[in-house]
């Protein structure tokens, strides 16, 4: 059992359960509304079962293309996801401009893979803040899209 | 960030070339006496180009003339309108965010299931127009009169198909009422909008279509209107008989109004209603609306509640054929 | 020639200026995911009330056509379709940009878009009424098969991994079910959450599925986002030109196919570019390299999606049935101005109609210089700025764009959750583009299916409804051909070459 086999098994189980949930949800729909969900549900469960069967029956080494060529820094990824998550939570209370500038700064630090160079970092930050301000202004004033103003209002 | 700056510059460029920049530097607190003192966001919960949009665009054309401030039409389509309506009460109750409302949608949708809002959540302050339903066939159809269509439907129960816009919509209500009153059984085929429903009619995919007078005006040469569900003939469709003339007591359609978030204070609700009524009183607006197939009405805030109660009674009569009672 | 007189009308300095502004604005709006042609056109409609109707229309048309083109920038440079009709452009555009051929990809996309646009508008000018008749032959059954034809591209996208590709497409279809059903009115798969009532917004979904994995890969690996431009720098116009001339059959076929799909109301650029891509791949002698940076893929999708502009105006102007959402807005603007559409439009309102069509043609030609300049600038910017600036900038545009679609933070949340999920799926070796296909094509397929079923039931012949008429049968034949052709090819190959193919999980 290599890494990909475990992942494939896990993925298939997930989609089988998802198919089951879609089926279960289709039970209290009108006939018209239930046809398509049921087709999707059954096919999804079927393809996932086939994937598992195929994996069990196949003896050849799995998946010719290597999935992991280079070491990845998973922590940066987790930090990125957390930052965007918090950003979305603060989007309304802090307002679009402020929350975005804060998020911009944090994401910049996460993405910086070399040593921090204060001048460059400051320039990027200033450029980012101007860009955020400009896009927000264009959205509110030209495209008439109301954005949360938050504590700056 | 070069991209962003560039984007901004070009937008400003675009704005500067003849379109002007509308700045909203007005105070945040709105007062009802000087309403409106800044541009009003007018949200349409259907796709652009539909009847709701065209009516709103006609209002928009006269909004500034009558009220001194422009209206900005925005779209929030999705879920047959439910998306926008379910968000209405989260919007700012300052009178500068108004939303197109619609009967029977606002009554029928919540009855169908949890769509994110209840009928009571929608605070309509003014109904300004109604669009009568019609029954139409393609111009080259074998059916010349409504009676021929009814006879055919009686001989072949279920075989006559009607295209219409959406499920549990004004169109489906009209089709169900038509079935009840004329004593026939027909099949309703819901489409994603009035235009696709017309396309299906013109392409002979369906026998007939339940649609609106606006679409009849739009498609005048391509379709034949068998009956109009209005009190009297429309000036825009002088040759189309009403159901009443043909002996069926059938009047109905989509009633379109303007709603505000529920926390909007009473005075402000009245102010919004007044602003809409001023447009409705404009003779040019009325004639343009009639020309396009709409029937301009003016039901101000004080009469809205009673009006909704009356309409609800009609919708309750077709709950069963629409499959609403089981929910 | 009376018609040529209208060409001169369109060529007034003010109209040219408006067309140019429209093209610049449209290209940028199209390049930013979340900002759409529909939005830009809707915002500008009120201004056209006070303008000469023809000039207003020229401006709206210019924005519309160039925004479809602008979608290619984000697709090529960031692997995110700026508009749904650029989904298929990501398949080959981004691999090209990665290996340093971004400028070439953009130039090819630009030329293909201009050619596609010109073909579409020319057909609109010459053949509108007969084409509108074809549009009406497309009933629910035909739409259903067309959507299925679009979905067959999944097998191409996931060569050697087709079951997983199909599963991903089914996930996309399931996502398209969420919310109030158009047909039937049921509230589906919302789990009581009112934010889901309107369903998964297609554009928000696309931004998430494509952008978030890009962001995660950017921060998690040390590779640069794009290889820097090669020394051959510049627009690489000659190279692009010769590539396109070599592929002229594909270009013309895709442009015509794009126009034909464009005339179908409600189908639009996304189906057009997907179906065209599938056809280009099948017809190509080098179909294996599709999806790995083959310029033919870009030529097919970009010529097709701009050809839909001219095509879309066919039913809009002739029948009063808008082909796409921006068409609907332009139609509404015409009606508010008191201009009646229909067959008489070309006679009674000839000056406005023809000025508009010529304006569209001029705007399409403007895309060439404007697109090359903006494109080169964008490529330089994206390939040279450091990750520390690129990551937060893309993240901001992702959040702002998904918010802007409907002024709704819940769209942004859906975007983000889907995006993270897509990344996980990708690392589990599920292809993710099929999710986008399922999401985009799901509602068209479902509506066509249920409507055909209901009509068939009323006529007492359900199966016959799905297979009636030459168009349905032709589409079914194309679907079968698309599905069986690779197997057939493989069998032939196997006879000569017994080496085993890669394993299929």
Automatic annotation (TrEMBL), chain A:
Keywords for this protein: Membrane, Transmembrane, Transmembrane helix
Residue intervals passing through the bilayer: 9-27, 39-57, 78-111, 123-147
UniProt protein name: Tripartite tricarboxylate transporter TctB family protein
Domain spans labelled DUF1468: 12-148
Keyword Membrane on entry: yes
From TrEMBL, chain C:
Keyword vocabulary terms for this entry: Membrane, Transmembrane, Transmembrane helix
InterPro entries xrefs: DUF112_TM (IPR002823)
Transmembrane segments: 16-45, 103-128, 140-159, 165-184, 196-216, 256-278, 352-375, 387-406, 412-428, 466-485
Annotated ranges, domain DUF112: 16-435
Pfam families: TctA (PF01970)
PANTHER family: TRICARBOXYLIC TRANSPORT PROTEIN
Protein name: Tripartite tricarboxylate transporter permease
Organismal lineage: Bacteria, Pseudomonadati, Pseudomonadota, Gammaproteobacteria, Oceanospirillales
């Amino acid at each position: 059992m290599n890494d990909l086999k475990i992942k494939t098994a896990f993925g298939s189980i997930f989609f089988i359960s998802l198919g089951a949930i879609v089926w279960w949800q289709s039970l209290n729909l009108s006939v018209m509304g239930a046809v398509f969900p049921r087709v999707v549900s059954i096919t999804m469960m079927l393809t996932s079962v086939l994937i598992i069967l195929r994996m069990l029956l196949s003896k050849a080494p799995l998946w010719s293309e290597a999935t992991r060529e280079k070491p990845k820094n998973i922590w940066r990824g987790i930090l990125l996801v957390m930052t965007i998550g918090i950003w979305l939570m603060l989007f309304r209370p802090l307002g679009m401009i402020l929350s975005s500038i804060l998020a911009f700064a944090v994401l910049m630090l996460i993405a910086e893979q070399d040593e921090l160079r204060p001048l460059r970092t400051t320039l990027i930050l200033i450029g980012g803040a101007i860009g955020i301000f400009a896009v927000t202004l264009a959205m509110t004033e030209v495209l008439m899209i109301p954005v949360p103003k938050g504590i700056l209002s | 960030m070069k991209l962003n700056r560039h984007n901004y510059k070009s937008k400003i460029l675009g704005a500067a070339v003849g379109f002007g920049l509308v700045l909203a530097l007005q105070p945040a607190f709105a007062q009802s006496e000087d309403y409106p003192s800044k541009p009003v966001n007018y949200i349409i919960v259907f796709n652009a180009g539909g009847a709701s949009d065209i009516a709103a665009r006609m209002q928009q054309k006269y909004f500034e003339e009558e009220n001194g401030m422009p209206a900005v039409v925005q779209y929030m389509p999705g879920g047959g309108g439910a998306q926008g309506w379910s968000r209405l009460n989260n919007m700012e109750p300052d009178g500068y965010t108004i939303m197109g409302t619609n009967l029977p949608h606002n009554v029928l949708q919540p009855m169908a299931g949890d769509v994110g809002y209840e009928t009571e959540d929608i605070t309509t302050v003014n109904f300004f127009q109604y669009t009568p339903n019609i029954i139409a066939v393609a111009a080259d159809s074998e059916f010349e009169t409504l009676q021929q269509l009814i006879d055919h439907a009686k001989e072949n129960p279920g075989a006559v198909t009607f295209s219409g816009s959406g499920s549990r919509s004004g169109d489906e209500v009209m089709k169900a009422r038509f079935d009840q009153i004329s004593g026939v059984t027909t099949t309703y085929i819901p489409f994603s909008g009035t235009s696709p429903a017309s396309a299906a009619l013109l392409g002979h995919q369906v026998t007939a279509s339940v649609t609106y007078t606006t679409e009849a005006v739009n498609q005048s040469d391509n379709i034949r209107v068998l009956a109009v569900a209005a009190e009297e003939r429309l000036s825009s469709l002088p040759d189309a008989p009403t159901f009443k003339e043909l002996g069926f007591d059938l009047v109905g359609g989509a009633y379109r109004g303007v709603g505000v978030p529920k926390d909007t204070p009473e005075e402000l609700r009245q102010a919004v209603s007044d602003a809409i009524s001023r447009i409705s009183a404009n003779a040019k607006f009325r004639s343009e609306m009639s020309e396009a197939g709409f029937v301009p009405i003016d039901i101000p805030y004080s009469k809205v509640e009673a009006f909704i109660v009356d309409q609800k009674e009609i919708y309750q009569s077709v709950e069963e054929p629409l499959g609403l009672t089981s929910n | 020639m009376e018609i040529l007189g209208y060409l001169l009308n369109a060529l007034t300095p003010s109209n040219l200026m408006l067309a140019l502004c429209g093209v610049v604005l449209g290209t940028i709006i199209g390049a930013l995911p979340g900002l759409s042609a529909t939005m830009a056109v809707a915002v500008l409609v009120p201004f056209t009330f006070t303008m000469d109707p023809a000039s207003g229309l020229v401006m709206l048309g210019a924005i519309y056509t160039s925004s479809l083109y602008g979608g290619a920038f984000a697709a090529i440079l960031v692997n995110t379709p700026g508009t749904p009709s650029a989904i298929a452009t990501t398949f080959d555009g981004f691999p090209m940009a990665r290996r340093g051929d971004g400028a070439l990809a953009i130039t090819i996309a630009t030329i293909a878009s201009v050619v596609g646009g010109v073909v579409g508008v020319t057909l609109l000018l010459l053949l509108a009424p007969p084409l509108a008749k074809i549009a009406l032959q497309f009933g629910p059954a035909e739409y259903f098969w067309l959507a299925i034809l679009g979905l067959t591209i999944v097998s191409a996208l996931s060569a050697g991994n087709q079951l997983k590709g199909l599963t991903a497409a089914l996930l996309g279809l399931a996502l398209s079910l969420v919310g109030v059903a158009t047909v039937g009115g049921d509230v589906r798969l919302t789990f009581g959450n009112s934010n889901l009532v309107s369903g998964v917004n297609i554009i928000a979904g696309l931004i998430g599925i494509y952008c978030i994995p890009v962001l995660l890969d950017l921060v998690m690996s040390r590779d640069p986002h794009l290889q820097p431009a090669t020394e051959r720098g510049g627009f690489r116009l000659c190279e692009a030109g010769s590539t396109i001339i070599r592929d002229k059959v594909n270009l013309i076929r895709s442009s015509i196919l794009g126009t034909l799909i464009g005339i179908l109301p409600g189908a639009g650029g996304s189906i057009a570019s997907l179906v065209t891509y599938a056809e280009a791949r099948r017809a190509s002698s080098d179909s294996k390299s599709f999806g790995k940076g083959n310029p033919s893929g870009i030529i097919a999708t970009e010529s097709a999606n701009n050809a839909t502009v001219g095509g879309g105006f066919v039913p809009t102007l002739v029948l009063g049935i808008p082909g796409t959402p921006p068409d609907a807005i332009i139609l509404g603007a015409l009606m508010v101005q008191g201009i009646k559409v229909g067959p008489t439009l070309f006679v009674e309102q000839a000056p406005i109609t023809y000025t508009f069509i010529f304006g569209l043609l001029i705007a399409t030609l403007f895309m060439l210089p404007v697109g090359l300049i903006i494109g080169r600038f964008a490529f330089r910017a994206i390939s040279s700025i450091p990750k520390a600036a690129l990551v937060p900038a893309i993240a901001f545009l992702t959040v702002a764009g998904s918010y802007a679609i409907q002024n709704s933070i819940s769209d942004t949340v859906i975007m983000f959750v889907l995006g993270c999920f897509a990344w996980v799926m990708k690392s589990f070796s599920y292809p993710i583009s099929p999710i986008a296909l399922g999401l985009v094509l799901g509602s068209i397929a479902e509506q066509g299916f249920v409507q055909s079923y209901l009509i068939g039931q009323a006529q007492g012949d359900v199966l016959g409804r799905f297979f009636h008429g030459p168009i349905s049968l032709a589409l079914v034949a194309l679907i079968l051909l698309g599905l069986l052709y690779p197997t057939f090819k493989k069998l032939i190959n196997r006879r000569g070459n017994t080496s085993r193919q890669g394993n299929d999980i």
